[in-house]
Amino acid sequence: MRTDLVAALDIGGTKIAGGLVDGRGVILERAQRATPARQDGETVMRAVEEVLGELAASSRWEHVRSVGIGSAGPVDASAGTVSPVNVPGWRDFPLVERVRATTGGLPVELIGDGVAITAAEHWQGAARGHDDALCMVVSTGVGGGLVLDGRLHPGPTGNAGHIGHISVDLDGDPCPCGSRGCVERIASGPNIARRALEQGWRPGPDGDASAAAVAAAARAGDPVATASFRRAARALAAGIAATATLVEIDIAVVGGGVGNAGDILFTPLRESLAEYATLSFVRRLTVVPAQTGTDAGLVGAAAAALLRGPGLVRL
User: Fold this and answer.
1) Residue 43 phi/psi, 5° resolution?
2) What domains, with CATH codes, occur in the chain?
3) Which tens digits make up the pLDDT trace of 166-201?
């Protein structure tokens, strides 16, 4: 792996994080803005430009040779555009072109956020040493990416492994992507919280109605909160089992804010996986928490930039 310094962006429905990252995956500088996800596309782009501007003010910026972007999807790496389901103002938005212009023409590598966490986990985390893996980010949305035969496999447009939009409930709720009963519609943080509220769970005195608050209530024994997490776990298990059946992965790595719920998520997830992954060649599939934490998106985006070129090579 080359040792050039790269600028990395991790763009999601909640935050836009940026960093300057070296060839070892060490983040040397950081910047962050909240994602104005419900505003128009240019407002969202201004937030990206502010993050890049803050990074460019660093004395280290002169050593930056390229930019890596991990974005909520779907993305189209071949066209350089993004259409995040949870950022309605961006539809076929020319993010690569705009970032290239903002950074004075630096080369830009775009991947989906699920592929970014996969790159990070295969490079430095729980999937290290595994030749066939699915890595997932379960947060505001649900994304994923694949390692096959020891190589990151983003696919032609950068969306391979996008498990969040596998349908696991044929008669389920409509998903903003246009389908129905998607993993994301059941297992993302906002949908875990939505389900709990619909079933009668109520936030505490602080009014926190996030998935983290639902997880805390589940740990305290609240049956409605527990049921919402168990339903999310079943959806994730169904999607993971389907993926394993198709491509014979031997490990699934789960990160993101919902993954931080710990046993509240992983215990029912492993129980449900045993029900869905029943064929002989998938029974040894393991599910583990991600290890690269909140920096996975940045580290993975940096890996994409460090390994620029068709068909990202072995990490």
Assistant:
1) -65, -40
2) 5-111+295-306 (3.30.420.40), 126-290 (3.30.420.40)
3) 999 999 999 988 999 999 999 999 999 999 999 999
